[in-house]
Each structure stands twice: as structure tokens, then as C-alpha cells.
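Quick one: structure for this chain?
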Amino acid sequence: MSHSQQKMDERSTILQLNSQLRHAQLELLSAHCATHQLRLHYSTEQMIQFGRRDILRKSAAAASAINEFYSALEKRISETAPAVPTDPSLEQVAQAVGWLADYLRQQRAQYFPAASTISSNLKSFLAPYFNEDLLERVRVLELKGARVTPPDFYNQARALGYDNLPEISHMDSVTFQDVVVFNEQLEVRALFHALVHTVQIEMLGLEKYAESWIAAFLKTRAHFTVPLEVHAFSLASRFLRPKPERFSVEEQVALWIAEGRYRITP
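Got it. Here's what it folds into:
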């Protein structure tokens, strides 16, 4: 095997690994959201008294095995992790917000000409959750082999010690305002998640969306704990239930805005 072929195989393996890791992470987040709902509605005593013991035991065993696996990974990561970055100045935060907003605008302008409208079948499927006007306006694009390029400002962020940035090139989809770009092919779950972000952007405004995202990331240091992302995962989890729950994404986003749940002070 030639050196170039070996490198290509390595890249393919890495892409496959991260794709499977991403899928596992989405499943874990869905399980996390479902478990959180149980904790909100029922006490421990109620769970033990009225819950099916076999399901409780199997769930606990699965959670323990998953925790053991990822805890071992986290320990290895911590051993090689770089120093925690210092808190940025207000000027640096404002600069980061501007970088993110500009990136979303630029990518939207780049991909919009090649994107197409959502198919009639998908629009009908998604109609109970999103308003008709939004589904008519949103454009989608499947890159099929290509990948969305990470923003240039990632280099500056990493230089400041922020290594745990979203792996945009490995995401199923990326939302650029009203244009959703898929790194491989369109999947309904990824589309739903992306459309939640479109609603958030339209209701908050692009700058406020970028400000909320940056502030939360600086606070939690993790992409998937940003409330904008948590809400998108939570709603997508409800959408994917065996017996789908009908709800309005716009109303859910409006509720979170009214309750201030998207705002975090870094």
C-alpha cells in the first residue's frame, strides 16, 4: 500500500469514527433529555414505588456501563488537556460575537445560490412543528463528500486556549440562518435540529443569537451545553419519540426567550 493510500485510509477511518461518535452523542443527548423529563415530573420515591423494576435495573446498568466507558476517556483527555484558558475581556467577547455573526452571514451567502427548497413531502411531515412561511423560505444543500469549512477565527480561539470548539466539518448539518447545509446527506433528525436554530435566529435576531451562543460557550466550555443547542436537541428528541408529540417550535422558542433561558452571562 502506498503512503498516499495509507493516508487516505486513515482519513476515512477518522471520519467514520467521528461520524459514529457523533451519532452516539446524539443518542446520549436524547436519553439525557428524556431522563431529565422524568426527574422533573417524578420523585425518586415515585420512580421506585411505581416504576417497573426490570426497566429501572436495565436502565441503571446501561447508564453505569456508559458512565464507566466515558469516564475512562475523560480521564485520559484530562491527563493531556491544555491549561484552562483565562477569561476573555469584554472586548474579546464582543469580537467573538462579531466573528460568529459574520461567519453565519458569509456562509449563508456562499451556499444560498446552490441550495434548494425543502421537498413537499418533508414540508408536510414538518408542518405540525414549523409555520408554513418558514418551511417555504428555508433552503437546504447536501454536500455529498465535501465538508463545511470551519471558520477562520477558530485559529485565534485556539491560540487563546479554546480547543473544545464545535467540529463543524463532522456535524450532520450546519444552520446558516435560513440555509441548512448537510456535510453528507439530508437526515430528518438533523434537519429538524437545524430548523430549530433557524427559528431561534429569526426570533432572537442574528446578533443576539451569536451573543447568547458565545456567552454560554465561554461559561460552560462545551458546545453541547449551550442552551441554544440543548433546546434544539430537546425538541428534536420530542419529535423523534415513537408516538410523536405535536408542538409548535416557534411557541417553545418564544417561551424560552420570555423566561430568559437562552441568556447566560460569561
